[in-house]
Specification:
The chain has 428 residues and is α/β, with parallel strands linked by helices. It contains 13 helices and 13 strands. The radius of gyration is 20 Å and the shape is globular.
């Protein structure tokens, strides 16, 4: 399964346009659903299961459209969901060999999507428990990267990113704890939005680190991300300025090297925005807040140690470390991150949005999974602080990377407004 990414001749599906067409009766939700189901069943490693209720849901939407009944903002839009979210009647496996449980009801996120008349196609692949970033799962078919064959798609929300990148669905849901939406979005060349922490209820979503877990959205456009965020109940100010001030961390290379191609793409984007009149401001910003790793390790162990038997050695090591971690050590880590977030938030008195590459490297070859160990270097801070962040693809070529934008807690709509404006400026 490959796709060269969106082009003028073959753009990725537009969820907003699809919903409008279904509401006006010019497209059939059932036909759209059948197309997505057929593609999903052929996409080894991307989808793990399809929802048997999908076709009936699509038929009901067509029937209501034919009778002139009002339909929701995602009417007939096929959507994929990461396997950490419950779908009624389906197993939730988290990438484990033995399912964690069979869901009796939909997760809150899935219920909201259905209420907006979206059609849930099925469950997508993920790294075991969402811990790694390879996008590969022991004992399962490998998840491909549709836009860069023989490279890793990124994780842990690999299948959701690949499903959108391959054009199987126009929207997909993922979970982001340290970059698990933004990194695969960057490597699969789609838009990936991480919402503010606690902005969406996570009932029915298996936790990894509850103090950092967030819902994320994959799409072909910022507009489709915004529509989905609104469906999920995300509200807040959407003030945007004509020329947002862009903050760029001054210590991007402090914790390791960056692929020269990533650096060049990022520099070119900043130069383009500066030429258009956007103020570019160098800022002091902690990329890896002290204590973040301890929080992840401790919270994952509290949630899962002794309950499951993962195949990933890194998970077993984390469980061991987290189980033995002293409560005072964990408390200090939470305090350290809280203090770092307070210091970091001060930058927003001088800038409107923070910009940095999504990942310091391009998608590694399938044969080099160890390369992903540094993939979350630029995504962890927003996760630790609970801030919204979005990854925007900068081109469709094999050496093109992605731009990450970050805004303060609760300013999700403001972030999306800035992202839409800046992305249009960079791609026009």
């Amino acid at each position: 399964m490959t796709r060269d990414g969106p082009t003028d001749e073959h753009p990725l599906p537009d969820a907003t346009a699809i919903a409008h067409a279904v509401r006006t009766g010019t497209r059939s939700a059932e036909q759209l659903c059948r197309q997505s189901l057929t593609a999903a069943q052929k996409a080894d490693g991307v989808f793990w299961t399809v929802d048997p209720a999908a076709l009936q849901a699509a038929r009901d939407i067509d029937r209501r459209a034919a009778h002139g009944h009002p339909l929701g903002p995602l009417a007939g839009v096929p959507i994929a969901v990461k396997d950490s979210f419950d779908i009624a009647g389906l197993d939730t496996t988290l990438g484990l060999r033995t399912p964690v449980h069979r869901a009796e009801k939909d997760a809150e996120v899935v219920a909201r999507l259905r209420a907006a008349d979206a059609v849930i196609i099925g469950k997508t692949s993920m790294d075991q428990l969402g811990w790694s970033m390879t996008g590969q799962t022991p004992g399962r078919p490998p998840c491909p990267n549709p836009t860069a064959p023989n490279t890793l798609p990124g994780g842990s929300s690999a299948g959701s990113a690949a499903a959108v990148a391959a054009g199987i669905v126009p929207l997909a849901i993922g979970g982001d704890t340290a970059g698990s939406v933004r990194v695969p979005a960057a490597w699969c060349r789609v838009v990936g939005l991480k919402l503010s922490h606690a902005s969406v209820r996570l009932d029915g979503c298996a936790p990894l680190a509850p103090s950092m877990d967030c819902v994320g959205v994959f799409a072909a456009s910022v507009r489709d991300c915004r529509t989905t965020a609104e469906v999920l109940g995300v509200t807040g100010p959407d003030r945007a300025v004509a020329l947002p001030r862009i903050g760029v961390p001054s210590r991007l290379l402090e914790h390791g090297p960056m692929d020269p191609r990533v650096a060049a793409t990022f520099e070119a984007a900043l130069n383009r925005l500066a030429d258009l009149g956007h103020p570019i401001v160098e800022i002091d910003f902690e990329l890896r807040p002290r204590g973040t790793g301890r929080i992840l390790t401790r919270e994952a162990a509290v949630q899962w140690a002794g309950r499951i038997a993962p195949d990933e050695p890194d998970l077993l090591t984390a469980f061991d470390l987290g189980t033995r971690m002293a409560p005072a050590t964990y408390a200090q880590a939470r305090q350290d991150v809280a203090h770092a977030a307070h210091r970091a938030s001060a930058v927003f008195t001088h800038v409107d949005v923070i910009a940095l590459p999504t990942a310091p490297l391009l998608p590694p070859a399938v044969s080099e999974p160890a390369a992903v160990l540094d993939a979350s270097r630029f995504t962890r801070a927003a996760s630790a602080y609970g801030w919204p962040a979005i990854s925007l693809p900068l081109g469709t070529g094999p050496h093109d990377s992605a731009l990450q934008l970050i805004a303060p807690q609760g300013k999700d709509h403001q972030l999306m407004n800035h992202a839409e404006h800046l992305w249009e400026a960079l791609t026009c």
